[in-house]
Amino acid sequence: MDKEFLAKEADRLAKDPVFLEVLERIRKSAIEQLITTNVDDKTLILTLQAFAKVCDVFPAEMQAMIQSSQERRAFKAV
Predict the structure, then answer these.
(1) Inside any domain, residue 36
(2) Which structural domain, as residue segments, surrounds residue 60?
(3) What pLDDT digit, counting tens, does each position of 50-59 carry?
């Protein structure tokens, strides 16, 4: 896939209310489960933390994908 296609799709998803709601629900569910998880269940804790982290990082990664396709100007010496 080329950068332009990825950027357009990332831009579309970044504005899609259903997609954003899904991310928010996954994050909320992971955090709620973290609150009630047994402290000795380290595997589940790490898994739930990873779910929440992905939901937090996802928008920034999409924004980076959008910006990566934008034309860059060459720097000129002053």
Answers:
(1) yes
(2) 24-69
(3) 999 999 999 9
Return all residues near 48 (Cβ < 8 A) that are at least 6 apart: 30, 31, 33, 34, 37
DSSP H stretches of helix in the chain = 3-15, 17-36, 42-68
Express each pLDDT in 24-77 by its tens digit: 999 999 999 999 999 999 999 999 999 999 999 999 999 998 888 776 666 677
Unique residue bearing structure tokens 């973290």: 34
**Scanning the structure block, which residue is given the tokens 């928010």?**
24
Domain count, the chain: 1
Tell me if residue 60 falls in helix, strand or coil. Answer: helix
* Distance, CA of 62 to CA of 14 (rounded, Å): 7
In a domain? residue 37: yes
Q: Is residue 29 part of a domain?
A: yes
